Amino acid sequence: MFNHSAMLASLCGPDGQPNLLTLLGSLVLAGLVGSVAHCGPMCGPFVLAQVSRNWARLKLDDMCPRQRVRQGLLLPYHLGRLITYSGLGALAAASGAVVGHVPGLGVVPSVLLLLGALMLIGQAMNRLLPAHAARWLGAVHLPMGWGVNLSRLASRIDRDSPLGALLFGVVLGFLPCGLLYAALAVAASSAGALDGALAMLAFGLGTVPALMALGVFGQMVGRRWGAAVARVGPVLLLLNAAMLGAMAWQRFAALV
User: Fold this and answer.
1) Number of folded domains in the chain?
2) Average of pLDDT values for 234-239?
3) Are 182 and 123 in contact (CB under 8 A)?
4) 86 close to 200: Cβ distance less than 8 angstroms
5) For residue 157, is it within any domain?
6) Alpha-carbon distance 41 to 210, whole Å?
7) What would the pLDDT profile of 13-57 be if each residue is shown by its tens digit?
8) Position 10 pLDDT exceeds 60
9) Three-class SS string for 68-108?
10) Which domain holds residue 28?
11) Amino acid 2: pLDDT
């Protein structure tokens, strides 16, 4: 007979703390699925604009396939995003750990896991019922001025050098994004700053393949992947949310 208690226990440690490997796997999956359905349309214009800028600087003799692929990967830009995500994860987890140790607030990590699960459900429902997307938690955004100010700051960065491209990624890593909020809520439930940084690094790495493919192959691959993810993505996000919900319950049960 299937042992549900053993399954739940495997998601968390003996103290009810979320298992780090499970957390990392969950966020990699969220990044992989969400990057096609969500990050592609949102960050795709920034990626394609940088690729076009890089290709325009190439001499005619350098326009070989290898150079086009190299310029399309945008490695410094993605490294910058990963730095921002890891820093935010460390800050969120450190704050969550401090709050969680306050007497009477030990339930906070469970609430954060549950919040992350609800946001992933919101992301899935945005795909399943796009006409009602604004009603779901996954559609929450920071005030419009935040994104506008970030875009203005990013536009002042010279992206013609690797350092400039890295700084561009660092700045755009702060763009408001419902999927990012979900990942941060999950990362904040981890044991401490290092685990939180690793959790958000895993999420960021999950978003890289789709954005790299978009940079190298253009909108064609985005449309093809988007059609596939439109079918299976919501199911994967819902399964991911169910796993996070189980982790939240196991963490809460360890307190009582």
Assistant:
1) 1
2) 82
3) yes
4) yes
5) yes
6) 11
7) 555 556 788 888 889 988 888 777 666 666 777 787 787 777 666
8) no
9) HHHHHHCHHHHHHHHHHHHHHHHHHHHHHHHHHCCCCCCCH
10) 18-253
11) 43
DSSP 37: I
Q: Is residue 118 part of a domain?
A: yes
Write out pLDDT tens, residues 165-182. Answer: 999 999 989 987 878 888
89-104: pLDDT as tens digits: 999 999 988 887 787 7
Structure tokens at 131: 């006409």
Tokens 């998601």 belong to which residue? 11
Q: Do 41 and 230 contact (CB within 8 A), yes or no?
A: no
For residue 4, being part of any structural domain is answered with no
For residue 27, give both structure tokens. 């966020």
- 12 three-class SS: strand
The closest alpha carbon to 93, from 8, 202, 206, belongs to: 202
CB-facing half-sphere around the CA of 97: CA atoms within 13 A: 16
H-state helical runs in the chain: 4-11, 20-34, 40-57, 65-73, 75-100, 108-128, 144-155, 162-172, 178-188, 193-217, 219-253
Structure tokens at 247: 């982790």
Q: Of residues 179 and 193, which shows the higher confidence score? A: 193
| 114/247 Cα distance (integer angstroms) | 8
**Are the C-beta atoms of residues 112 and 96 closer than 8 Å to each other?**
yes
Question: How far apart (Å, rounded) are the C-alpha atoms in residues 147 and 154?
Answer: 10
Please give the average per-residue pLDDT across 182-191, as a whole number: 88
Model confidence at 129: pLDDT above 50 = yes
pTM of the model as a whole: 0.79
Specify if 9 maps to a domain.
no
